[in-house]
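Final report, results section. Input specification for complex C-07:
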Amino acid sequence: MLTILFDGIAYGMLLFVLACGLSVTMGLMNFINLSHGVFSMAGGYITAFLINRWGVPFLLCLPLAFLFSAALGMVLERTLYRRLYARSHLDQVLFTIGIVFMAVAAVDYVIGSQQQTVKLPDMLKGRVDILGGSIGLYRVFIIALCGCLAVTIQMLLVKTRFGSQLRAAVDDPRVARGMGINVNTVFAITFAVGSGLAGLGGALGTDILGMDPTFPIKFMIYFLIVVTVGGTSGITGAFFASLILGIADVGGKYYVPQIGAFIIYALMVVVLIIRPQGLFSRSRGK
Amino acid sequence: MSIALATHDLVKNFGGLRATDHVSLTIHTGARHALIGPNGAGKTTLINLLTGVLTPSQGSITLEGDNIIRLSQHARVQRGLVRTFQINQLFADMSPLQSLCLAVSERHHQGRDWWRVAGSNKAFVDEAEDILARFGLRDVMTQQTRLLPYGKQRLLEIALAIACKPRVLLLDEPAAGVPEEERHEIIDILADLPKDVTVVLIEHDMDLVFSFADRISVLVNGALLTEGGVDEIARDPQVRAVYLGESGHE
Amino acid sequence: MSMTPTAHQMMLDQARWRWSESLFWLLSLGVLFAFPSKALLFSQIAIMGLFALSLDLILGYGGIVSLGHAAFFGVGAYAAGLMAKHGLGDPLLGLAGAACVAACIGWLTSFLLLRGSDLTRLMVTLGIALMLFELANRMASITGGADGLQGMMVGPVLGLFSFDLFGKTAYLYALSVLFVLFLLARKIVHSTFGLSLRAVKGNALRAGAIGISASSRLVAIYTLSAAFAGIAGALSAQTTQLVSLDVLDFHRSADVMLVLVIGGVGWLYGGIIGAILFTLMQDWLAGITPQYWEFWIGLVLVCLVLVGHDRIGAAVKSMVARLSGKGGAA
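Structure output:
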């Protein structure tokens, strides 16, 4: 059972890295973004490309995937997404669905629909026994890396000036602007970092979750569940929501495979009934 | 004289902030009661508590003797407790005629009629038209509300409340933002309100308050400072201090 | 007879049947005789139009953004399909069954939509649709799973008109159902109830302040919308004699959203006109790039939003209004 728990934790950590950027940007600009998965896809594909074509070592690919996706995010935010902040939620939904469809079809056309594979470094292959449960070394690596990232991000949010500007802007953009905080720049940077993290998550997840053109659509629901269940007032909500969902999903699929996928949807609906604003946000419906 | 609206020890806390501090009010039927106080005194919060937009942390509210704490906003309206908003809350895409026909229909519990065309009941439309005429809105009654000038929108704001045939009417700064020349329209409307309707008025315009009200309650920092007839309040040194600042600065 | 209309007349005028509407419906009947070979395509359009109409009820009049409306379409399709498979092949009976099942699920889930933000509603509707998809997938023994439902035996409409290979019966059947339900929707939308929905959508705070209970109105319209969508799904099942998992797929929810937006949200005809444009576009694009047509759909969505679909919709609406002599803002 511990093996399942470890798997669930690894999966949850991965979900966290993938979704935390979305959590912050949705909370920050009240912008419903269904295309977040596109940046994960970018990270996964660039990693596969670098490893398979140019033989770049896996560990080096990770920061490269981050930078690539962050850059992509920054460009798209400045040119396209920025225009949608003031639009209705319906418009945002339609627009970002459009982006996903285009990206998915484009990747399918240019690269093809086969699964991307990455060659993991030898030191990450193999399993280890902890406390009686066994876990793959790669998953240990993921837990460690994502855990460090979570701590780093939280430190950045809480201890740095940028972090407090971000938190002020999330709390009340109008007041933040009135205090001289350049909310647009804050958002641009946050969006870029969030997209970068999504890309990093995509790179990390290629081996475990698979990477093909349908990734953004398949996993969109997971990201959104993390954001909805976790609330949008900070990353702690996303962190715990990801862990809960990761463990519930892996556990559910193992113990009750008949209704495996059902469990996280049901969990989400239940949470939304009890606390529509998410489990961890300070009550503030938008 | 019967009591139209009363609160007992009403409290509202927002986290650490006490917005409404043990407010006990008694308002008699047919009264013209004004609620005044400096900005941030909690006047709109009190209205929100009375109408059910906010739930009190403590205390009770009675409407004509019935405890209405558990009633939803729309249920209170159906009992005759109607309010207007300080910032216009109108149906921007509908016309005044449509808005008022709807309010009149709802009052007659015909709001759920899904078969007959809206406005097919001539009596309802006539009533809506009458109210609009009284408010000087008849000539714009089929225009989209969002296209109306602010003064007319403000009149519509009150007309919509009147269409609900309120027994107790809470007016939140009805003259807010209305230019001097147009204020008399609002004042005339208020003077024309039926005598059996109880009116509670929040206002900053002291001329309006003194000409309209027969009793005044003063709210400061969420609590009732004092209450009394118009002359009493006008001469009360505490009230003047609150509005004009501490006497030491004179 | 007075020259200026009375207030009463002006209110009634909004719901008046315009000659352009009669023209529209006569044309939609006429195309069958003009292009008899395209009957199956036309019935597809009619069904999509009904599906989009159902979405318009909650989106255009209720203000609920739903990413999972295919849930009701799919449930209706499976209901009718299973009824046809197990001996209850009468089409109208199938429609009734589908409407009931879909309405039940709509009613039950509507309560989840009353609290929370737009995002919450989006997620709940999406979640419900995904759960139903998974359910249908798992219960493959009943639903046929990914292979689809086999062995549907759909009887003749009203016991008289069998479904023919060319789709003529299918189209006349679908068009009739669409027309009847359209009339019903039109009645509702122009009624006091419909006006109250507009008020709730426009300013929920003020709607409450004039005595309207938003929750019960939204539950009612959501349930009705689910029933309509269920009937659309049943029509699809009956006219194609096919039901597979894709009736519950996310793409279907996204497509119907696009259809409605193309035609214009909030004026009932938008769904039908959108269905016409969408299906013709789909047909044309499928001929050019059968595999990657998703790209073009995405592009259309992006462009529509950037250009401003409500501006397009408003322009179309005012053009139609001017043509049919409709006056006033009402």
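The mean pLDDT of chain C is 87. The interface with chain B takes residues 7-8, 10-12, 14-15, 187-188, 190-196, 198-199, 202-203, 205-214, 217, 220, 328-330 of chain C (CB under 8 Å). This concludes the modelling results for the funded period.
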